[in-house]
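Chapter summary example.
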Amino acid sequence: METKEIIYALRTKNGLTQDDLAEKIFVTRQAVSRWENGETAPNTETLKLLSKLFHVSINTLLGSPRRLICQCCGMPLEDDEMIGRDRDGAPNEDYCQWCYADGVYTYDNMDDLINICAGHMAHENFSEEQARDYLKRTLPELDYWKKYQKLGGDGQFEAFKKRLIKEINDLHIEGMPKIEKLNALVGKYVNLEYRLPNGVKTKFLDDRTTYLGNQLESEFGGERCFGVLAHMDFIMISTYEKDGVNPELVLYKKR
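The structure predicted for these 255 residues follows.
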């Protein structure tokens, strides 16, 4: 199917008129009409909105021109139900839902992932040992694990995380419980905009970098929670409301 047919099918399946769809994604009804007539196509930002609205990947909206593969476990992403979701519910075409759920990476140890996958991959003509060998050769070539190699392999990354956890807990931030686990988080999903004392808003992270972090409920209760982010060079702690609303920087410490 072409993009024009896909948009029409998704719109009608969800019981939306052209006016309804236009309002939801901040365009005119005429724009929707031109897409469905094949006269024009949605731009990148609009495709993202359509993807989030209809819970389908951009690849699907474009007629599936690419073969998607999870960049953590190597699984072919054959349909949108297999694709992981960002915290806002938008599909993330880089990962499957087993490796990436609600904006959180579920594996930070390659051996753990191999132990899980090898048993599922084994069959009559492909032993579990062969599956393990295949995964050991394949996983390091995927984008997710390439990022981890920059922090060091052979147990160095796990040791780095343990050091970070101790450093964070030793800060004794009032109201923040002890952190026990750090997850891998991509910068663009956690790069909140903070208001400085002079009124200027700024971001501190690189959207393309993978950081370590977690979210913790405040010991004080209420709607605000603590967000912890760290990297080789710094530790950053903030508080915010649901979905990162009204963030306030509590601490930024160079390591």
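To summarize the output: DSSP finds ten helices and eleven strands in the chain.
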